[in-house]
Amino acid sequence: MKKDVDNIKRQMILYLFFAFLMIILNYIIQKMNILFIYPWVLDNWGDNDFIYAFYCSTDPYNMPELIGSIIAVGITYIIKYFLDKFLVFKKKEIQLKETSIEFLKYFAFAILTTIENIGIQFLFTNAFHTPLEISLVVALSIGYITKFFLDRRYVFTKNSLSET
Question: What Å distances lie between residue 21 and 17, 48, 66, 103, 116, CA to CA?
Fold first, then answer.
């Protein structure tokens, strides 16, 4: 019993440490989007109505931030999947069928928590006029805690936990 509790603590510490690193990476990606990619797209394709409406527009919503958030979350979830599988939950199998099933479950939950993340960030930024840094940290923290419990329970099942 104590070994199980210690294992859960170790998993959660590692999981949240990697989540912290992904929050930093997410922030860097979003800042790069706002500082470099958005101005470049606006200068080169801002006269295209479709691109302007769905990426460059800041009225009524900040579309560059929303799109940057979606891209950043996607990149960080791909990296985090491999960290979680091999380092947090210590899965050793790399068989295509098992990994594919895990990957699909992981990303199904990622979609749900991404909607949660983006929704919270969008609400904080647009309704409460919270700075990006605060809304990002709050949204991603809530999302990663939710995701830990989903991943532990449904993605990286007890079979993998007994390997540790």
Answer: 6, 36, 21, 21, 19
